[in-house]
Amino acid sequence: MKKMILTTGGLGFIGSHTVVDLLNEGYDVCIIDNLSNSHIEVLSYIQQITGKMPKFYQGDVRDNALLEKVFSENDISAVIHFAALKAVAESVVKPLLYYEVNIDGTIAILKAMQKHHVHNIIFSSSATVYGDPKVLPCTEDTPIGEIKNPYGETKLINEMLIKDFVKANEGMHAILLRYFNPIGAHASGLIGEDPKDIPNNLVPYILRVAAKKIDHLTVFGDDYDTPDGSCIRDYIHVCDLAHGHVLAIKKILTIEEPLKIYNLGTGKGTSVLELVNAFKKVNHIDLPYVIGPRRAGDATASYASIDLAQKELGFAPKFSVEDALKDAYHFLIKHEEGSKN
Ligand code: NAD
Ligand code: UFG
Question: What is the Å distance from ligand 2's center to 137 Cα?
């Protein structure tokens, strides 16, 4: 029998690519999303790509009546909990909102799982929990670092919450996935990263500059202790990241241990300036930028060791940063065309 996977936030950037991969791999999928940072059209794009329509419930993960309906109507094998607010700068000015949505949301999901005897949860955590790591690459045993914003704190609190939950509830299993920097888009150009507000993240910002909606990019600092002075991150194609979730689903459905933690990145660091130059080169366009001051709270360099995910999940990213930047630009062009029609 087909397994039903509930994805919260399944119409968002990482969620939508994961839903596509799950459907292609033969899983049934239902989605809860309140559309606070996504568009309803994504549902039909998922159908265009896969030929299948996931079940969709529009609403908030903190709405207990909605959760009761979703968990009663579906025989759920596992939950992938993506739904959260994720804008670091916004979290600094609206901490209560971030703690409320990101923590109450997880508690509501865990309670529903407990009530309906759903035993498996995969949680979207982040490399942000490593802070500014002293030793690279980051392994899952790298000490938790100093977190400098409420968004990052909510990821750490969620990790602790889920650890305590599986400890207290025999038979429950959780996989915490610590994502590094997802970029890119599906090769169809139909789904990608389309934030509703002005983006904070590097690639969405680059895309706004490429679309001439913003006149230049500011590179936040070129005086770091790195080869070209700009910060280093581990940029992973969102389709590779999405596939990591399918592998994690396979694992969690057969797992013995209550808790596993995996880094999902590529294992390779790329600087901001290298990324900007790669974007220009692969897409044959200019990208005006200026060097600005450092952004408060930025880590100098962060990239993953993915040995554990490779060994235990069979995780092996296929795409390069160049592929991801080409796909991100293709998504932009396709989107621009779409909005003109
Ligand atoms: P996204 O904003 O594109 O997707 C999140 C989705 O959840 C959106 O569709 C949004 O409408 C929905 N949502 C938000 N709050 C909700 C609520 N209360 N109820 C129901 N739906 C709600 O973000 P993303 O980049 O796809 O990130 C997915 C997850 O991965 C998040 O938990 C995020 O914190 C985490 N993460 C993202 C990154 C990244 O760089 N994108 C890195 C590390 C971790
Ligand atoms: N950057 C610029 N200019 C910009 C935007 C970003 O130079 O306009 C630089 C940043 O200084 C940083 C790099 O580009 O050095 C990447 O910045 P992002 O904001 O894209 O990504 P971060 O690594 O800061 O953080 C992201 C997510 C977090 C997540 C973390 C680890 O925003 O939520 O990756 O997964 F926790």
Answer: 17
CA angle at 291 for the pair 289 and 294, rounded to the nearest 5°: 130
Q: The tokens 């933690």 sit on which residue?
A: 261
Q: What is the pLDDT of residue 145?
A: 84
Q: Two tokens at 293?
A: 């001051």
Ligand 2 atom at minimum distance from 272 CA: 14
Catalytic residue among 27, 98, 130, 151: 151
* 330 vs 318: CA distance, rounded Å: 18
**Interval 151-184: pLDDT, tens:** 999 999 999 999 999 999 999 999 999 999 999 9
Q: pLDDT by residue (tens digit) across 291-319?
A: 999 999 999 999 999 999 999 999 999 99
Alpha helices (runs of H) in the chain, residue ranges in sequence order: 13-24, 41-50, 64-73, 88-93, 95-99, 105-115, 150-168, 202-210, 238-252, 272-283, 307-313, 321-340
Please name every residue paired with 270 in a beta bridge, in sequence order, or none if there are none: 233
Please state the atom number of ligand 1 nearest to the C-alpha of residue 102. Answer: 18
Name the residue among 73, 68, 98 with its Cα closest to residue 85.
98
